[in-house]
Amino acid sequence: MNEENTMQHDNHDAERAGAPTSSGASSPAGIITFVTSAQVADAIRAAGCAVSVQQDDLVTRLHSASHGIGYQVHWGNQAGADQYLDFTLSCPLRVQGGDLPEGLINEWHRSRRFARVAAHGEFLVLEMDVIVAGGVSPDFLNFSMRLWVEMMGQFFLHLRNFTQQVASAEASGEDIPAAQRDTLASGDTQAPMTLN
């Protein structure tokens, strides 16, 4: 391989890695490697949700809602002042009246991707991580927020389906454990979220 071919090969490898080359090529414009609270708030608005912005000890807190249920942004690794490499979208629901219906969490994880569910004491929490470290496009951020709204809707439908299964079993005379008759309420409000 002659010197000219070697140089072209090296430049091609550098371009794929997003590094500047001797011919002046560089990484695509607009790639973001961290997000600010303002960028995330804009992405939430672009997904059709209103945003409440609160300043708390130099940290900006973002709260929003979808399908009538509140959620919030929990910041992850910090890259600077109001600059984050990742964040978690979190929707807590308070469990009223006992334990969670058996199999509810496992069935969600078997049938869905992207967002996880965990039980934390009296709360059932739907969460989804968004990672921008390494570089993503602004479109990725907007898509992630639309995906989160979709996951929330699917999760509420999942909860309602479990409740309907319990009601159907009761109507047919089957013995239903008391744990499966729970009502869930939003962790952000006092009003119960009735699942039927």
Protein described:
The protein is elongated, with a radius of gyration of 23 Å. The longest helix is centred in the last third of the chain and has 34 residues, at 138-171. Helix 2 crosses helix 4 (138-171). The chain is 34% helix and 29% strand. It has helices at residues 3-17, 37-46, 104-111, 138-171; strands at residues 51-56, 59-66, 69-75, 78-80, 83-84, 86-96, 116-120, 123-131, 183-186, 192-193. The termini are far apart. The chain has four helices and ten strands, in the order H-H-E-E-E-E-E-E-H-E-E-H-E-E. It has 196 residues and is α+β, with helices and mostly antiparallel strands. 20% of the residues are buried. The strands form two sheets. Strands 1, 2, 3, 6, 7, 8, 9 and 10 form an eight-stranded antiparallel beta sheet that branches.
State Rg: 23 Å
N-C termini distance: 71 Å
What is the ordering of alpha helices and beta strands? HHEEEEEEHEEHEE
Strand content: 25-35%
Shape, principal axes of CA atoms: elongated
* Largest sheet composition: 8 strands, antiparallel
**SS summary, helix count:** 4
How would you state the average pLDDT, rounded? Answer: 77
Low-confidence stretches: 1-27, 176-196
> Could you estimate the helical fraction of the residues in percent?
25-40%
Structural class: alpha+beta
Number of strands: 10
Brief summary:
It contains four helices and ten strands, in the order ααββββββαββαββ.
Name the features.
single chain; 196 residues; alpha+beta; eight-stranded antiparallel beta sheet; two-stranded antiparallel sheet; 10 strands; elongated; disordered N terminus; disordered C terminus
